[in-house]
Amino acid sequence: MIKIAICDDDSEIAKNLSTQVQKYFAVWRKEVSIEVFYTASQLMAVHNERVFDFYLLDILLGRNCNGVALAKQIRNLCPSAEIVFITGFDDFRNEAFDIHAFHYLIKPIKFQMICKLFNDYFKRLNACEKPFIIVQQDRKRIKVIQEDIIYVSNKENMAIYHTTHGEVREYKSLKNVLKKLDSRFAQPNSKCIVNLCRMRGMEKNICSMQNGMTFNITRAYGSDFKKKFIDLGMED
């Protein structure tokens, strides 16, 4: 299900936009959850509790706030979110693109525009999307591509994802981390999870990684770990 937030200080425009989005998802039989907000503060007030995949933001949200400023806050908290600006003017176009907005729509918004917007979104999603997980680090939801994960370690109830781009952390047990990862991941011991596709090899009770790290394969985990390694076709 895709979660969408609409923020526009004109209630009629906001409700009409919500109706058009709902119509699109009904036609294509896709699940959607839509919430409508009339001020930036209303939207940010719930952001600690829940975040959205897609934001439709009016550029002008009253005298003291604009959609670009709101988008910068959202981008800081949720870097992977898609943001679309809606306005009757072109004045903020350059600022909008500076924060990598997915699209920029000019009022009045017609149903055909909504169709093109989400058709483009789903086409790009289907063409480019690699398997990923969402990691809740502090107040940020971070999208982590699974193939970029080298291994996951744990420290004081915190899972530490060691990736090709650095470390990402969240409070989660390795047992629950493993549940959201795909079949390329396995535990050689109780202290870590490794990406089998990033292993250099396995000798006796030691697995070596392409980055030079080595991990012990303990008796409790050895049988399942070695089976996954063979099933994935990693054994020579």
TrEMBL record:
<keyword id="KW-0597">Phosphoprotein</keyword>
<dbReference type="InterPro" id="IPR001789">
    <property type="entry name" value="Sig_transdc_resp-reg_receiver"/>
</dbReference>
<dbReference type="InterPro" id="IPR007492">
    <property type="entry name" value="LytTR_DNA-bd_dom"/>
</dbReference>
<feature type="modified residue" description="4-aspartylphosphate">
    <location>
        <position position="58"/>
    </location>
</feature>
<keyword id="KW-0238">DNA-binding</keyword>
<feature type="domain" description="HTH LytTR-type">
    <location>
        <begin position="133"/>
        <end position="231"/>
    </location>
</feature>
<dbReference type="GO" id="GO:0003677">
    <property type="term" value="F:DNA binding"/>
</dbReference>
<feature type="domain" description="Response regulatory">
    <location>
        <begin position="3"/>
        <end position="122"/>
    </location>
</feature>
<dbReference type="InterPro" id="IPR046947">
    <property type="entry name" value="LytR-like"/>
</dbReference>
<protein>
    <submittedName>
        <fullName>DNA-binding response regulator</fullName>
    </submittedName>
</protein>
<dbReference type="Pfam" id="PF04397">
    <property type="entry name" value="LytTR"/>
</dbReference>
<dbReference type="GO" id="GO:0000156">
    <property type="term" value="F:phosphorelay response regulator activity"/>
</dbReference>
<dbReference type="InterPro" id="IPR011006">
    <property type="entry name" value="CheY-like_superfamily"/>
</dbReference>
<dbReference type="Pfam" id="PF00072">
    <property type="entry name" value="Response_reg"/>
</dbReference>
